[in-house]
Amino acid sequence: MVVAMKWLKLISVIPLICFLVITNIYQDPANIFHDESKEIAESIVDGHAAYSATGNGNEREVKHNLIMVMPDETDCIAVGPSLVMCVNKDIVGSDSFINLGVSGADINDILAQFGLMEIYGKKTKRVILCVDSYSFNESIYAVEGARNAPLWPYTEYMLQILNGEEPVPVYFNDGQDIKVQMEQAFSISYFQASWDQVIRNRTYAMSDKRWGVVTEGFDGSKPYYGVDGSWTYAASYQANDINYVLQQCAGYDIKTEFAYDRHISEYSKDVFEKLIAYLTNQGIEVELYLCPLAPSLWDRLEVEKSHYAILDELTEFSKEMSNKYDLKITGTYNPYELGIKDEDFYDSRHVRRELMGEFFDFYSKE
Questions:
Q1: Which of 75, 160, 186, 194 sits in a 20 to 30 Å window from 208, CA-based?
Q2: How many other CB atoms are there within 10 angstroms of residue 262's CB atom?
């Protein structure tokens, strides 16, 4: 009788587990099982702006695939975190421009992208390199390395080049992580996100189209990639007002993001200088972009300035690199030096695209 009850309980649970797994794989809000990155990248190169239907595509894989299919030669590329993602060809002043920025990009992401460009023979005349705390705060990128783990072989490839070693060949990695897929298939938290998607769409059924081309009349409900790989935020995010910005500034985790009582990584400084030297030795013009903080966020750091040295140290490092390698510096972390206001941001860190040309000169210094 006891054994029968145990079997009955097990049998009753199996349908629930099946429902959870099927929902996670079918709905797939983070595109872990249905990655549309290749199609989006190809659409961009074909001259069509594109978006993820879930609004949560794999940015790193999109840019991975974009590097593979982008023109063999470009006038300019932009690399770095989301702070640089809104820079587009109009702001740069060249139709031959590709934006390779991804959210939360750190030193390993940046190296991986240059490693990919080396492998696929992609050349550029100019690089806009966003210098941000993400790449110099080792307490962040050492912990959050899982985000760029699939691209790590390309990071190592570039590190070997920068260190004067013969790089070990890298075989194509499509970004699929079987371990992650198995974990998320049975994940309750992923099921919650999947079910939220069902509720939001008011249907369990999904279109087979997990991505789309931005056509005339597009309502802007989804963020999308432009024809140069740059990013346009969803209309709802663009509508953020100053109250939202102030809220974001007040809640921003400055202790983690700006390395409370820590200094910038010597390892990062060494790698960045090697990268800059490598690029400039090839005749590539390098421009350093320092994106300002919203004034209210900057003010929070100023109150405890003695505990936050990282932005001052990054400024000095950038100036040192500029003097040593004759680099142009665009922007500054201090918003008051630019006359930029809280209302000129989408949130505490991201400057509104329509104002970037007003505050920053991304044109070549040549």
A1: 186
A2: 17
Alpha-carbon span 146 to 136, nearest angstrom: 17
- Answer yes or no: are the C-beta atoms of 112 and 137 closer than 8 Å: no
Interval 203-214: pLDDT, tens: 665 555 778 899
Contact of 137 with 259, CB cutoff 8 Å = yes
Q: What is the pTM of this model?
A: 0.86
The CA distance from 25 to 44, in Å, is 27
Q: Give the DSSP H/E element, type plus range, for residue 257.
A: helix 254-257
Q: Measured on CA atoms in the order 120, 167, 60, 81, is the torsion positive or negative?
A: negative
Residues comprising the chain, all counted = 366
Quick one: pLDDT at residue 344?
98
Q: Identify each DSSP E strand in the chain by its residue range.
A: 50-52, 73-79, 97-99, 123-130, 211-213, 224-225, 231-232, 285-290, 328-331
d(CA 72, CA 160) in angstroms, rounded, equals: 23
Q: How many CA atoms lie within 13 A of 73 on its CB side?
A: 2
Tell me what pLDDT residue 203 has: 64
Is residue 292 within 8 Å of residue 339, measured between CB atoms? no
Sign (positive or negative) of CA dihedral 318, 322, 327, 333: positive
What are the structure tokens assigned to 87, written together? 């820079």
Distances (CA, A) of 82 to 106, 162, 347: 10, 25, 12
Residue 328 φ/ψ, nearest 5 degrees: -80, 140
Angle, in degrees to the nearest 10, between helices 37-45 and 59-69: 50
- Please write the tens of the pLDDT for every residue from 282-323: 999 999 999 999 999 999 999 999 999 999 999 999 999 999
How many alpha carbons lie under 13 Å from residue 28 in its C-beta half-sphere? 22
Give how far the C-alpha of residue 39 lies from the chain's centroid of Cα atoms, to the nearest Å.
18
| Whole-number pLDDT of residue 13 | 72
Q: Characterize 305-317 residue by residue with b for buried, 16 or more Cβ atoms within 10 angstroms of its Cβ, and e for exposed.
A: eeebbbbebbbeb
Q: How many CB atoms lie within 10 A of CB 360?
A: 20
Which contacts qualify for 164-173: CB closer than 8 Å, 24 or more apart? 167/118, 170/115, 170/119
* pLDDT on residue 231: 97
**294 vs 296: CA distance, rounded Å:** 6
